[in-house]
Amino acid sequence: MHDTLKKLTGFMLGSLRDLAPIIAVILFFQLVVIKQPLPNVIQLLVGVIMVLLGLTFFIHGLEQGLFPIGESMAHAFAKKGSVFWLLVFAFALGFGTTIAEPALIAVAAEAAKVAASGQMIGADEASMASYAQGLRFTVAFSVGLAIVIGVFRILKGWPIQWLIIGGYIGIVVMTMFAPKEIIGIAYDSGGVTTSTITVPLVTALGVGLASSIKGRNPMIDGFGLIALASLTPMMFVMAYGMVML
After folding, report:
1. CA angle centred on 201, ends 185 and 196, rounded to 5°
2. Closest Cα to residue 47, out of 36, 59, 37, 55?
């Protein structure tokens, strides 16, 4: 119990240190540049405390739960020696974590509203919900596929730079043919997919798998899955736009 409280205190101090520059910037521009008092000071203080507590518990949860389970499952699959089930797990992990990403849900809903206001889809709730859901499933499928490719790369020892270079060449080519209305959403999709849920589990999977395979270096081979997970949504969302718009 004492060790847990000590760790939580350390995480809280670290979170406070990370938040301090943001708070300083806001205070400087609000008080020195804009020269206006802070509105709703009590509400702002409560919000900052909630953010501080949220970051603290989130980081503690990563260390206690998500990182260990991701690494242990990677070790278990490596020992089991079944490539098929490892790849199925990789796809399911990428798909499942992405479909649950709060950032993706928000962006998909906003994209549906903008598409409806631009008369690209119907303005009714059903059309917007269908568009947003289709966008989410497209991105989730692309991330699942990216994790499968990344895991296969670790198994085979392929250099990641060729996959990244080839992927971005494909993105540039697709950008020239994709509807202009979808390009910005496609590029943003690459960022929102790699957020609070996806990154810890996928990183733990890559590092754990590379640590379990003889001849693989966790530093060289264990990382890079997130880069692939950021790349494929751009391609798939542009393809989605070509079909839907």
Report:
1. 45
2. 55
Report pLDDT digits (tens) over 62-113: 777 667 777 777 777 777 777 888 888 889 988 988 888 878 888 888 888 8
Cα 113 off chain centre by: 22
What residues contact 178, with CB distance under 8 A and at least 6 apart?
A: 186, 238, 239, 241, 242
47: Cβ–Cβ under 8 A, 6 or more apart, which residues? Answer: none
Whole-number Å distance between alpha carbons of 140 and 174: 19
Written in H, E and C, the secondary structure of 8-62 is HHHHHHHHHHHHHHHHHHHHHHHHHHCCCCCCCHHHHHHHHHHHHHHHHHHHHHH
Q: What are phi and psi of 182, to 5 degrees?
A: -100, -15
